[in-house]
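Incident review: delayed structure delivery

Summary: a single-chain prediction request sat in the queue longer than the usual turnaround. Root cause was a stuck worker, restarted by the on-call engineer. No data loss occurred. The affected request and its eventual output are reproduced below so the record is complete for anyone auditing the incident later.

Affected input:
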Amino acid sequence: MSAGALRHTFKRPLRSGSAEMPIVEGVRIVDEVETLPKEVRIFDTTLRDGEQTPGISFTKEQKLAIARQLAKLGVASIEAGFPAVSKGEFEAVKEIAGEGLGPEIVALARSNKHDIDRALDAGVDAIHVFIAASDIHLKYKLRMSREEALRRAVEAVEYAKSHGITVEFSPEDATRADLQYLYQMVKAVAEAGADRIDIPDTVGVMTPTRMKYLIKYILPAAQGKIVSVHCHNDFGLAVANSIAGIEAGAKQAHVTVNGIGERAGNAALEEVVAALEFLLNVRTGVNTKLLYETSVLVSEITGIPIPPNKPIVGANAFSHESGIHVHGVISNPFTYEPIRPEMVGQKRRIVLGKHSGRHGVEYALKTLGYPTEPDIVLKVLDEVKRLGDQGVRVDEDKLREIVEKILEERELTAS
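Output delivered after worker restart:
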């Protein structure tokens, strides 16, 4: 179907099932979106790739806490770690694997028997095997020929599969690899028995258009096996590239909570899931109402604050100050919100400042149980704007102070 022959407007039902909510209204959806999979696997790698964030090192107890939350959230796979790295890492992965959490527990392994054996000894459900595919990695990191890397990849997959375990294979730095060689490697490991093929954008150099092309190019080589995307955020495109890959036919996305990870991080779980669920009507198995709770837990454990303007889980994601916006949101939240904040475990915040209007102040006073007579509202608004011009933040305590003073002055005048 050509872009000119597109047919329908996309709407999705509210989670409550009560009414239809337009997410993308009046926008034609291209044929790739119309043929999206009904479900996509969410492969969380917070405990492995996320832990590679500079300065982050989880204890076993912290890994367990995050793993339990991820299981509660409903991800399909939890990459618990890299058992060959250290004794502590091995023990943490083994303990998570023994918890019976529900999701598939995965361990990372290089394409050698030692790493695979350590993963097997940890008792995981699946092994994520990888080897470099790009010439720059083969030449400067592994000092290995393409032929040798291909042989090792096949041998590693065959060895892991001989133990009756699920195997996912990643050709590292796939997005900078020679396309024909990448196709050859993917085809070879698929024939060797790999259950899933992951396409990593290791240094985040893809764009959505290029990612779509690459996934469509690779799909035939995967021979019906699930293709996954693993996107880094070096140019701020990890989430967009992940969605593009899924639109092109990938059925799994690697993500981390809050997008933590090496350098600029990975595709953020909460953003990928929300985009799939609410924009594309694709089911992920994730309980979206727990996204904020999960984000906060990981933020507290890592010590990395959630940026206020972060999509979905940031403090400002559902906050409104502008008078025009507040008036609209109070009348109908969908005027300036794409989804209900409760759908991701958030709440709406009306913030007072120099951009506020009468409706915002009235809403705030009513919420705090204060009278909303016009004269009180206007006096509070004037004071809020005066303080805003001075750079003073009007939080709840400050607002109470302002209102109490105005009410006291009003009482004295009346007496």
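Verification: The two ends are 77 Å apart (CA to CA).
Action items: add queue-age alerting; document worker restart procedure.
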